[in-house]
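User: Can you fold this complex?
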Amino acid sequence: MAPSIYPDYPPDLSEEQRQFLVTSVNDWSIAHGLAVRPAPSFLNQNLGISGHDVTENASQVLAIAAPLTIFPSLFPRACFEEALAIQKAYNELYAAIAQDEEWLEGIVEELIGIDDFVGKLWETHLAVKKEGYVQEHSLGLFRSDYMVHVDPQESGAKPEIKQVEFNTIASSFGGLSSQVSSLHSYLASVDAYPSAAASLQPESNKDGIVTQSPLPASKSVPSLSSGLAAAHQAYGPSKSLRPTCILFVVQDPERNVFDQRHLEYSLIQKTGIRSFRLPFQRILTDTKLDSDRNLLYHPPHSPSKSYEVSAIYFRAGYSPDDYPRAEDWQARLHLERSRAIKCPSILTHLAGCKKVQQILATPHSPHLSRFLPDEAMAARVLKTFAPIYPLDQSDAGQEARKLATDPSTAARYVLKPQREGGGNNVYRKAIPDFLKKLPESHWPAHILMEMIEPPAQRNIILRNGEIQSGGVICELGVYGTCLWKNGGVAGKGEILHNEEAGYLLRTKGDQSEEGGVAAGFGAVDSCCLVDV
Amino acid sequence: MAPSIYPDYPPDLSEEQRQFLVTSVNDWSIAHGLAVRPAPSFLNQNLGISGHDVTENASQVLAIAAPLTIFPSLFPRACFEEALAIQKAYNELYAAIAQDEEWLEGIVEELIGIDDFVGKLWETHLAVKKEGYVQEHSLGLFRSDYMVHVDPQESGAKPEIKQVEFNTIASSFGGLSSQVSSLHSYLASVDAYPSAAASLQPESNKDGIVTQSPLPASKSVPSLSSGLAAAHQAYGPSKSLRPTCILFVVQDPERNVFDQRHLEYSLIQKTGIRSFRLPFQRILTDTKLDSDRNLLYHPPHSPSKSYEVSAIYFRAGYSPDDYPRAEDWQARLHLERSRAIKCPSILTHLAGCKKVQQILATPHSPHLSRFLPDEAMAARVLKTFAPIYPLDQSDAGQEARKLATDPSTAARYVLKPQREGGGNNVYRKAIPDFLKKLPESHWPAHILMEMIEPPAQRNIILRNGEIQSGGVICELGVYGTCLWKNGGVAGKGEILHNEEAGYLLRTKGDQSEEGGVAAGFGAVDSCCLVDV
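Assistant: Here's the predicted assembly.
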């Protein structure tokens, strides 16, 4: 954590101001679907409907405002604009990586035997490859996550963005982030914020015309649904003479269901494209492949009808927890074999391994320029990398092992597992002890990353109807949509659609060192841009 | 209840179809704010947040889909169109009544001493009259409620609409009715309804072009907020050099808060007009009159700021329950004295007495043509009246007393109290016993109305996450917005704005003889129009 670079913010609240803001936020959020299903722990087992014991039903019908910040957090304008400006280059980079099977194979080989999940994904890919892929298009709905970093060793250092991770599967909160930026703008427009919050005021020229708003809207809902629509259109007409649809492959139950539903509603409203939610466990029950490997969806609620699936949007399947049974891997194989466009394909999923990020961000790595030939753009992307080291037997790995096992140097680092999903990071001084207990053969399943030092700031988080004030850490996620036709090696494919697709700010208390709103540790937020 | 005149509807549902529809409805409703705060009885006292006993908080932060029907109910197209077509005439009628103080005085005199509430309202009006009104504009956001009636004694009788009541204060559900018609259209557009539901299919011409949709959208949200905006504009610039705002005077707590919030959000979004929610009990604390009787609002959350109130929208104050203390009547007087435009003024509030409806609907009454000079329109309005009798000493009253005390004739009638708010009607054979126990001096506080016999139909109601199927009764409410400049006697005023403002369908199980979704007995619904 670096010292603050921001103006004094947010203003103090009287009890009446606090009450007014909380009520305004609670009501606006439900009125606009900025909501989640409540946690079962919130609804204890004594909650009954008409005298029955129906907690499960209650947690599926009740809703509550998503965990969110009362104020939009401060964010340096230049950093925000840079993050959005380079998203198309990031899309291009990861589309190229996902097409370079040989290069990915080298990475996977290092992880196989350590990370079962990566091994299983690779096996699944190989099985389809052997038979031959029948779909040459791939869709990515990506999210590149950053924190603002201020070098604590350089006085007067300018803030810059440093990448935390790049998500190639199930990038979440795009459905809610449009709503939270609207919420904060609404609160500003009705003077719900104390007038002391000067940072929230738009800049005007001498004629009183607003020239610059500090509150950028997030276009993530329409942009992400446009990405799905692009894949649907690229798929072309049904070959089986059925109506076509998109499948959202989801977890069940899903507390964050409205985040996903907003994309579904935007899709049907703007493009007329049908989509269905398919729980991961029901893939094999509800879908079939015909002899041309068209994926046919048979909705349980409408047995006489069937649909040909144009695109599969994975909001599940990103974590080993989604594959408890052998059938679950059969299900993933089944989808990968199909002619539907995958969002993402298995190679695209694997491109999101932290190992890939680590290889790109290892100092003096030759890989970035290989995948991103535009030198100026590659330089801007490179600037967003925080140094990342492998924990393997390479020279960089040996260096990293020294840094990680020495408590005095470990204090500037975080140790992260290669596989997806938060909750398992090890921070700073805890790293040496953690490694001591871990067999050395398992060390390469982790990477060592220099801690990003975000400037101190404060905010108020509303969660489960209760507020907490204090220091916070913000993570900016920039969405990108990219549709490409696979080439055999990097650069040979053709990009058909490439867009920056809005942003998300996620904010957590600075006492916690874990991220992830879904895991209950963070809140959705939007940016209040400041020139610093 | 008349026999059904409708096609077979809705189609039977398999367990999978039912499940799919319920999930779709629960998710769409929360994503679009078609919601209420859950009833405290739903959240029992054992519900805790972080171990605290916070049921009150929980019931203010949790939400649940509003009670609603899974299918749009069938409604005769001709009846629907007629109800909308005559709304502007109804607006004109009630604007004229509200301006005829002398005529209203005659009615009030009959009720005073029987109905304390009417007496108190009248006293309040007289007090302001003595001092002199300083605002000549009045706004009505009205709702005229109808049921379809099929004469059970005439075979092959055409369905017609009969008025149940006319609401001049706090007409509710306009904020949700736009949403419920959107919900049903969404479900039809994604084939969530079984294909057997032929009534839901749009009609097409021979070229396949849709010529007529069976699912009319309700424009109530934008229309009602436009009505409020018209009053705001008519008020003109602030005289006290403050920013202006509209006040929503509300009950607190309010489970139906989203219904009201949707109007507030539409108002700020479309017109930029600020509005605030003011609990009825806080009127005297948070507002002041200056020497010109400008109404000044001092928001508790922003003590340094104050606003001049252009219009007061009452969503509270319609029932004696809102006036437990003497200060509550002082508060109503305080608002009535102010220069703000009232929605409604006390005279407009009184124009909504059931006694007024009864006098207009007493067979051969001369009053309708007096207030509504357009003969053709008056004839169409007259056709919507079900015969209504006073229970007083007049000739019609004597006749009514005979009908009401004889169990064989009472079976075709309903007895209603003159004052507002559901829950106290006495039906059919229960009427003679009820009157036997009531002192005869109190009889004139009620009116006797011929029962409307709606055609039988079925639907599925979702409430608190549980569904109930069965016979239902539907009530169509048509909203109207009307702004006028008061004249001294009927017809002399000037109407500045007069619009039909969308519709609401409210549906209840036919086992219950009580109405009112707020009271927990009904559900919001929309129309599936049929030609019968």
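Chain B touches chain A through 57 residues (CB under 8 Å). Confidence is low (pLDDT under 50) at residues 45-54, 514-520 of chain B.
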